[in-house]
Please model this.
Amino acid sequence: MKKSVQVLLFGLTMLLVACDIKKEATPGPGDTIPQAAISAVREAFPNATSLKFTPIEANRVWQAKFAVDAARMAVYVNSAGRIYEASQDTGTSDLPAILLQYIRKLYPKATIIEATKTIQDGTFTGYKVVIVVDPAVPSDTKTLLFDTDGNPTMDVDPGTSNGTGSQDAVSYVLGLADLPEAAKSALAGYTFEKGFAKTYDGNTIYNVLATKGGVTTTFIFDGSGNILKSYEETPVPNPNDGLVLTADNLPESIKAYLNENYAGWTFAKGAIDQLNGQIQSYLVVFMLNGSYYIGEFDAGGKPSKTIQKL
Model:
């Protein structure tokens, strides 16, 4: 599959727009926005408007939400001005078809409650998607990370029942240097691969992927850096071979079904699920009257699930 290249451009407007800084938190000594955090966000996004800061961890980590032109953005920054992660909101219909297929096959009851493009140093690095695994259990959420093509890179373990599985929890990517000292000590001898923080109501857990001797291990630390659990990691499962479905290779049987039942539809994107070289199913995203729909079809092109509006 040819790797798509997407570039996000920041700060190219001819006019600098001053930031309108607003605080959502109740005023208090612990809620004072550090000047270093404000300056870091202003410098990275000079044309940001409607900038709002919310404390995530008291006196340590802040979330800044703002707009850049029509894009809604969020940044996680610490009191020293280090930006951990920047993200841009995106609609479900803008996610790669292979990403959607991964979620629908591994978490068939899931609903997507948050989808963003992650950005580091102005470069689009992938997608972060938060799902409710089963709508019957609203607190059962998972965060999934994908590369720029929609291939999974991290299926984040919720870790504990301290509230970080809540839909109100916030999450962000971080580096080795951003972990508590106890966590860094525990990782001595390992090669840090990826880190992730999740916070709810002041409680934070850290998920870390690290390798040693060719073995990848997941560590889950509490907010102080103590190990809550660790286990040898298996590769993130991917239910497909990464094949893209296009309008040109869309089976005639699927076209006939959509023509009959969704007259006026237009193809948007799709993915092919294969197993040992044999097609198992097709996922199709199409547009009709300005709205996006998603459908799954079996190898013969017959609908296998109810078509849903995105």
